[in-house]
Design brief:
The protein is an all-alpha fold. 98% of the residues lie in helices and 0% in strands. It contains one helix and no strands. It is rod-shaped. The chain starts with a helix and ends with a helix.
Length: 94
């Protein structure tokens, strides 16, 4: 009977240690969870700011991009036209 009481006391001591460790781990997990939430909020704010900047840049970039494309389209026609003119004039004048 005394052995059963001793086993029960050891089990109780082990359970107490497990409970204390679990409480300590829960506190650590809760602290880390709060830190993760704070980091997520910062990232969300940063993403929002980045999206706003990208949106502003898209408006500015689109206008410039169209001008550049129009410039190249006009120049391609001029270059092709001048090359064809040069080729045909050399062939027919020779």
């Amino acid at each position: 009977m005394t052995k059963l009481i001793q086993i029960g006391q050891r089990n109780t001591a082990k359970l107490d240690r497990v409970i204390k460790n679990q409480e300590r781990l829960e506190a650590i997990v809760n602290e880390q969870s709060e830190q993760i939430s704070a980091i997520k909020e910062r990232l969300d704010q940063h993403d929002t700011v980045e999206r706003e900047i990208e949106h502003e840049m898209e408006g500015k970039g689109k206008k410039k991009g169209k001008k550049v494309e129009e410039f190249y389209h006009v120049n391609i026609h001029v270059y092709i036209g001048s090359i064809l003119y040069y080729v045909f004039n050399i062939n027919f004048n020779s």
